[in-house]
Amino acid sequence: MHEIVAVGADVFEANRKLAEKNRRLFEKYGVRAFDIMGAIGSGKTTLILRASKLLAEMGYSVGAIAGDVAGDDDYRIFRHAGLVAENINTGKECHLDAHYISHALEKMDLSAIDVLFIENVGNLVCPADFPLGTEKRVVVVSVTEGEDMVRKHPVIFGTADIGVLNKVDLAHLMGVSIERIAEDYRRITGKEMIMTDAKSGKGIDIFIEHLLGRKQ
């Protein structure tokens, strides 16, 4: 039993050290990097695209790393939108880790990027334990996933810097209480959740304000 715990501790410590290395690299090049976590279908890709468009209008150069178990669908979407992008396939791994990111960064011209979005593999469990070295971690959940998603996954919401409730315009169709979800998030984190409908662009300006630190 003790040996298994030690092995796990070694994995987390190795990831922590690599994450610190990534963080120093971001700081060296002045890159604002953000880890975007959330389940499949929560709207992470659309949120990144909307935020990237607004950031570009504000004068920022934006890049993205697409993390998926397999395929390059999101990567191609990012490239089509004009973002500097890299793709990571994790195979059987249910999360990105700092090692994956360090290799992706080797392929990117960080001097040409002001803001970097890292779209994590789609789930609300595994990514929580593996920081990537980003400035902030964001968790996205949508009303289509149900009213209980926040309270069912307190660890990832508790460790993230920003929580986003997406697809809020569909709440009445889903019979979901936005207020209940927001209260669950407030109880776990002591913070307010950001409400967005990424497809229409609703709330994206507020999301960016929280990302860049203009609001806390």
Q: Would you write up a description of this structure?
A:
The structure is a single chain. Helix content is 44%, strand content 18%. By secondary structure, it is α/β, with parallel strands linked by helices. The N and C termini lie far apart (42 Å). The protein has one domain: 3-Layer(aba) Sandwich (Rossmann fold), CATH 3.40.50. The protein contains 9 helices and 7 strands, in the order H-E-H-E-H-E-H-E-E-H-H-E-H-H-E-H. Helix 1 packs parallel to helix 4 and helix 2 packs across helix 9. The chain is globular. A 7-stranded parallel beta sheet has the order 3-2-4-1-5-6-7, with helices on both faces. Helix 3 links the parallel strand 2 and strand 3.
CATH topology category name: Rossmann fold
Order of helices and strands: HEHEHEHEEHHEHHEH
CATH hierarchy, class? Alpha Beta
Q: Which secondary-structure class do the elements indicate?
A: alpha/beta
Q: Ends: how far apart?
A: 42 Å
Strand order of the largest sheet: 3-2-4-1-5-6-7
Shape verdict: globular
* Rg estimate, integer Å: 17 Å
Average pLDDT metric: 94
Summarize the amount of helix as a percent range.
Answer: 40-55%
Could you give the count of β-strands? 7
The CATH homology group name: P-loop containing nucleotide triphosphate hydrolases
Q: What about the largest sheet?
A: 7 strands, parallel
